[in-house]
Write a structure and sequence with these properties.
The structure is a homodimer. By secondary structure, the first copy, chain A, is an alpha+beta fold. Chain A folds into two domains: about 5-145, PurM-like, N-terminal domain (60s Ribosomal Protein L30, Chain: A, 2-Layer Sandwich); about 160-325, PurM-like C-terminal domain (Phosphoribosyl-aminoimidazole Synthetase, Chain A, domain 2), CATH 3.90.650.10. The first copy, chain A, is built from ten helices and 14 strands. Chain A has helices spanning about 5-15, 60-80, 95-100, 100-115, 170-175, 190-205, 210-215, 230-240, 255-260, 270-275, and strands spanning about 25, 30-35, 40-50, 85-95, 120-130, 135-145, 160-165, 225, 245-250, 285, 300, 300-310, 315-320, 325. In chain A, strands 7, 8, 9, 10, 11, 12, 13 and 14 form an eight-stranded mixed β-sheet that branches. In chain A, strands 1-2-3-6-4-5 form a six-stranded mixed β-sheet. In chain A, helix 2 runs parallel beside helix 4 (about 100-115) and helix 5 crosses helix 6. The longest helix of chain A is centred in the first third of the chain and has 18 residues, at about 60-80. Chains A and B meet through helix 1, strand 3, strand 4, helix 4 and strand 5 of A and helix 1, strand 3, strand 4, helix 4 and strand 5 of B.
């Protein structure tokens, strides 16, 4: 049983419980949604990050890690079209890490991002661990009642969009695994900036908070998910929840141009990373044709790209290359297979 | 720097941020409190539990562990005088544990307790870890606006109460460390039931949800905390937040009678465990003298005991034995010293 099957079972189990009229959305989305009887809904998301699975202390500087754990949760809240408000952070560190400046720098990175979006740290937990650092980041957001954007509202005929560029984070991870490091200048001069930028895409992702708010508050997205596992997997999640299919135009996928620019022994496959790389924390969303003209060109300097069209479920989940269509397999990140 | 000093620093750091009028209570209590503009407040708590620090797979059966991680959070919500409503659970397990029935049994225990209190699992995260199991349990509760019970409202002259009996959980842990196990019958016949009951006090604690609701909804407690670290430490937390002192009568402390009943090589010190043992998840609370007569005798079969009196801060935190008063040192659990 893989993790998605298991979560599906948990969800059915939870849904068999006594009905809860205030529960707008439970297990099965980027965040849960609770109705507050005051014209507002509360949106809440949790992300568990584990040393040597989700990050490595040798490559993730503490300050950037503090930024990233919050960014991951802000991305979930953005994917619900909601405004982030409150954070709870549970942090477990071994004694020897406690005795360094790790914790202090970690929180500096966390507060740096939190302050940009007026997100307030209101609680959490602090624990000793035996060996590894673990973090659980919980963020609460809010939106007008009934106006959160779920994964389930896409309809055939909607157009599929994605913010920013894809594959840069995975490229940064590959470069780190091949020995690149922040601030290192051993590469050819032409590549230095591209490499440093790609490392930062991985180490310090920018959640698309502004786009999430625009798409939610102006009712422009019929369904939305953030790309954390990888486009190929996350489009499957969105299609599964919406009970639709999709045809993505391969040539339209905004593969990160920095990846295409790498050459020689650093060369990587831009399209493969854009499809399956994961951790881009861009937003994937569907828009009714009537609303496409209302989409802003850029939000916070970030553009969007139309990459395909929503189809009936029977059409499947297809990647179109020239005149040929392929089944797009979910090849993104999975904890348990 | 110990963990409480660090949390105090985080709290000052967070409080320097832009003011947030909806934030009733942030870092520094059993749970944070957010005003919802609808006559209700949301109360939210997080508890991080780490394998081999907070539990051991050899001694904590998965079903009881699933119960316990939720119980710990329900206890926090009870200590705020609030009603638990929603749970988020982040669970990290290594591949080899994933392949056993651990996860299934863990959730069975979790749902067993959740159903008793109509708490609904609405989200969380599931992750692979390298070696150890980690759990972060987040519970959201609610109470009437402004009616949550904090740690900071105790006043000199209030009487100090505790629910149930203390020290049983720590005794159960000691017995486990000395080789006792659930269902084992190697002990003398007279001790078998006491030992099994003490093991269950540790492995399957009962949160005082009913007492929390009564004390909160009927405005009977001026301040409250749950006893997770141990009475000696938790009374310090309560006094620090309320800026008061306290005198506890040693003879009044409801040490678990099962502990006093142990004999021979299993004998333990009931008073020491009641003071410093931790994980009892009983409620410690202050009551104005006018309200003592309004306290129910029992809630859900559990009685309360008056153990001392709140004093001005200058009086210190004292344990009174006969005619002598001692400074009560916080000797309970601390992750980092």
């Amino acid at each position: 049983m893989n993790e998605f099957d298991f979560i599906e079972r948990l969800r059915r189990h939870a849904e068999k419980r006594a009905s809860a009229p205030e529960l707008v959305r439970g297990i099965g989305d980027d965040a849960a949604v609770i109705k507050q009887f005051s014209g507002r809904d509360t949106v809440i998301s949790a992300d568990l990050l584990i040393e040597n699975i989700d990050f490595r202390l040798e490559v993730n500087p503490p300050r950037l890690l503090g930024h990233k754990v919050l960014a991951v949760s802000l991305s979930d809240i953005a994917a619900m079209g909601a405004r982030p408000r409150w954070a709870m952070l549970s942090l477990g560190v071994p004694q020897e890490v406690w005795e360094t400046n790790f914790v202090e720098e970690f929180y500096e990175g966390f507060f740096g991002l939190a302050d940009r979006y007026d997100v307030r740290l209101i609680g959490g937990d602090l624990s000793r661990t035996g060996e590894k650092v673990v973090v659980d980041s919980v963020v609460l957001g809010e939106c007008a009642s009934g106006e959160s954007v779920s994964r389930f509202g896409a309809r055939p005929g909607d157009c599929l969009f994605v913010t920013g560029a894809l594959g840069g984070s995975a490229a940064g991870l590959r470069l780190l695994e091949r020995g690149a490091s922040l601030g290192s200048h051993e590469a050819d001069a032409a590549d230095i900036h591209a490499i440093q930028d790609l490392l930062m895409r991985h180490l310090r992702p920018e959640p698309r908070v502004g786009w999430g708010l625009v798409l939610g508050e102006e009712h422009l997205a019929t369904a939305m998910i953030d790309i954390s596992d990888g486009l190929s997997s996350d489009v499957h999640h969105l299609c599964h929840e919406s009970n639709v299919g999709v045809k993505i135009q391969s040539a339209s996928i905004p593969a990160d141009p920095l990846v295409a620019g790498l050459s020689g022994r650093r060369a990587l496959d831009p399209l493969m990373l854009a499809l399956n790389g994961g951790e881009d924390f861009e937003l994937l969303f569907a828009v009714s044709p009537d609303n496409i003209s209302k989409l802003p060109t850029r939000v916070d300097g970030v553009a969007v790209t139309e990459i395909g069209e929503v189809k009936p479920a029977a059409a499947g989940i297809l990647l179109s290359e020239g005149s040929r269509d392929w089944d797009l397999q979910p090849e993104g990140w999975m904890h348990f297979k």
